[in-house]
UniProtKB/TrEMBL annotation:
One of its GO terms (molecular function) is ATP binding. It holds the Pfam family SBD_N. The keyword Transmembrane helix does not apply. Belongs to the four-carbon acid sugar kinase family. This is Four-carbon acid sugar kinase family protein. It comes from Muricoccus nepalensis. Keywords: ATP-binding, Carbohydrate metabolism, Kinase, Nucleotide-binding, Transferase.
Length: 425
């Protein structure tokens, strides 16, 4: 079985929370991003294509180009998608499959977006969030790309054919599941859509599909990445590489509008973090706004004094999500002078984290451990070396930021993250 993996993701937090699964198993793992040269210096290379907000054609073309430039014979391939189907997962997968077939590699996409540890499951081929159909949630109402969260229909928008793997097949034993995968490949399907409610469902899928690594790619989120890593030979290391201790205040940047991130930010403020709310109008105006320089300086002074600085884009009604990339870039410009005083970074929202790190001359993140599901910890590479934690906006709960900062300052050695235990559906 391969020990080298390429992960293509549509945002930074997704790239990191997939790659960290392999780091937990003792493989070296790094994250890079679009426009930054990266090679095979590590066992696992995850690349943020920064395609979440691109139109379908551009998003697909970017993934195909990265695949042609970075994939190597014998390496496993994961196409990371958002577990709630934001962005352009169907177009990106179609372009990735076309590029593989151009290279003479027949490929079956194994689509399994479930991430049970974070409440994402797949039932009857449809994505659910915390037990409810995704289409009925506020997250879907705020941001979605497709008419429904039925995965075969989603793939159909890009002209891809799919066969459904129901939950009873996932639990029928590895031999039956492996046979179903081989049948789908022989029948010429572009993809299979796998149900999953428990981590064990994804574990079964990983065991059955790994022997097809030369003919398959996996499409999903951190859940399938963790299952694949766990199915590889060998076990988790007793300890993980050392990480630098923070030498000052932590910069906590909340660029996500997701309720989970807002609650966590509020809790961190209640426990003593200095809060700075940044109006979107200020970011749109730029440095010419008289509020810009004093705000940037205030954040820098807070960090230099060793205090945590919590920076969040102020919520606004009827926000234009299509302008999120521009706001993230403007926020990064505002924070760049102050960030040189930080001892560590905690960032929610992939666009925000990537933009800020790019401004600081960071070319990648070497991953070390996972604080909790969906919250990896690493060390920046390039012009600046500081501990960094990233989190997708909708992951976690009200205590996630506080627990993460406490672990960051724990003087003990890094330790493998304990995965949640399975529970009944």
């Amino acid at each position: 079985m391969t020990s080298r993996w390429l992960i293509l993701a549509d945002d930074l937090t997704g790239a990191a929370d997939c790659a960290i699964a392999f780091a937990r198993r003792g493989l070296t793992a790094s994250v890079g991003w679009q426009g930054v040269e990266a090679g095979w210096e590590t066992d696992v290379l995850a690349i943020d294509a920064d395609s979440r907000r691109l139109p379908p054609g551009e998003a697909g073309a970017r993934h195909a180009a990265l695949l042609r430039a970075r994939h190597r014979p014998g390496a496993g391939l994961i196409k990371k998608i958002d577990s709630t189907l934001r962005g352009q997962p169907a177009a990106e997968l179609a372009a990735t499959l076309a590029a593989l077939r151009e290279a003479g590699r027949p490929s079956l996409a194994i689509l399994a977006p479930a991430f049970p540890a974070t409440g994402r499951t797949t039932v009857s081929g449809r994505v659910h969030l915390d037990g409810a159909p995704l289409e009925g949630t506020p997250l879907w109402a705020r941001d979605h790309s497709y008419p429904s969260a039925h995965l075969a229909e989603v793939l159909g928008t890009a002209g891809l054919s799919a066969r459904h793997l129901p939950l009873d097949l996932l639990r029928a034993g590895d031999a039956a599941l492996a046979a179903a995968l081989r049948d789908a490949l022989a029948a010429g399907f572009d993809a299979v859509v796998a149900d999953a409610v428990l981590p064990g469902d994804l574990d079964a899928l990983a065991r059955a599909s790994l022997p097809l690594a030369e003919q398959a790619l996996w499409v999903g989120s951190g859940g399938i990445a963790a299952a694949l890593a766990a199915a590889l030979p060998g076990g988790a290391p007793d300890s993980l590489p050392a990480r630098p201790a923070p030498r000052g205040g932590a910069l906590v940047v909340v660029g996500s509008v997701a309720e989970a991130s807002r609650l966590a930010a509020r809790r961190a403020e209640e426990e003593g973090a200095a809060a700075f709310d940044v109006p979107p109008a200020l970011l749109r105006a730029g440095p010419a706004d008289p509020r810009w320089a004093p705000l940037s300086e205030g954040i820098a002074v807070t960090l230099a004094a060793g205090r945590d600085a919590l920076v969040r884009i102020a919520a606004e009604p009827d926000a234009d999500l299509a302008g999120g990339a521009a706001l993230a870039e403007a926020l990064a410009s505002l924070l760049a002078p102050a960030a040189r005083q930080m001892g560590a970074l905690f960032a929610t929202g992939g666009e925000t984290a990537c933009a800020l790190l790019g401004h600081l001359g960071v070319t990648g993140i070497r991953l070390l451990e996972e604080i909790e599901p969906g919250v990896p910890l690493g060390v920046t590479q390039g012009a600046l070396e500081v501990p960094v934690m990233t989190k997708a906006g909708a992951f976690g709960d009200a205590g996630t930021i506080l627990r993460s900062l406490a672990r960051l300052r724990d003087p003990g050695p890094a330790r493998p993250h304990a995965l949640p235990q399975e529970s009944a559906p």
